[in-house]
Amino acid sequence: MKIKEHVDVISKAFVEGLRRILGKKLHGLYIYGAAAFPDDVPTGDIDFHVILTDPLTDEERLHLEKFHDTLGREFPPLGSEMDGYYILLADARLTSPPRSEMWARATDNSWALHRAHIRAGRVIVLHGPDPKEIYPPAAWPEIEQTLEWELAYVLDHLDQYPDYCILQLCRLIYSHQTRNVVVSKAQAADWASKALPEWGRHIELARKSYAHQATPEDREFKLAEIRKFLEFARMRIEHARQE
């Protein structure tokens, strides 16, 4: 089964389960991230926002935990890689990052980026109104602050996910230089391969990893080179911010 078809099957089961568990409390369900882009590349997870009219009860949280476990068992591997937030409708209408009603009340620190993507149409609406009726526009200053958080995440995960970090740095360079954040990692890698040819091998090996084609030698090269690419990216980003 192709990736997009797999996402469609999981999405159908996801929305049906949420309607059963949450009833009228479910206001909206939106898929964003890689799954909402047309790129024909592997998707590592499914990013989502569940918009709630009222807070979750402890019983509902328990049912949702069991439901996500079921998705993981019935729809491997993506069913166990559902990465998202259960957000109150009142919070979703604000510009400040909302706290989730699930999973240790995690905060969506990339809120401005997610809003920009969703409002630009990089979204799959599974339930609820047009997302523009909920999500407020994101101004560049708050987007730039979110990009700083994204860079900090890269800094903390260089050795753990060098392939992700390389592609994410491509996206961060592109976003700062163009002030356009509505771009996938694959699209940013296409741009960087042409704009930054000296880093072509690094980008290509990161792509291979996402396609599950990388060798142990490829990973060793990325680990040895990732900090060099990081320093280059930081200089390009700083230069773009000063223009």
Order of helices and strands: HEEHEHHEHHHHH
Shape verdict: globular
Low-confidence stretches: none
Distance between the termini: 46 Å
Would you write up a description of this structure?
The chain has 243 residues and is of the alpha+beta class. Helices cover 55% and strands 10% of the residues. Helix 5 packs antiparallel against helix 6 and helix 6 packs across helix 8 (200-210). The relative contact order is 0.11.
Entry summary:
Helix content is 55%, strand content 10%. The chain has helices at residues 3-22, 58-74, 89-92, 111-119, 140-156, 162-178, 185-195, 200-210, 216-242; strands at 26-32, 46-52, 82-88, 124-127.
Structural descriptors:
single chain, 243 residues, alpha+beta, four-stranded mixed β-sheet, 9 helices, 55% helix, globular
Secondary-structure map:
Blueprint: H1 3-22, E1 26-32, E2 46-52, H2 58-74, E3 82-88, H3 89-92, H4 111-119, E4 124-127, H5 140-156, H6 162-178, H7 185-195, H8 200-210, H9 216-242
Parallel strand pairs: 2-3
Antiparallel strand pairs: 1-2, 1-4
Helix pairs in contact: 1-2, 4-5, 5-6, 6-7, 6-8, 6-9, 7-8, 8-9
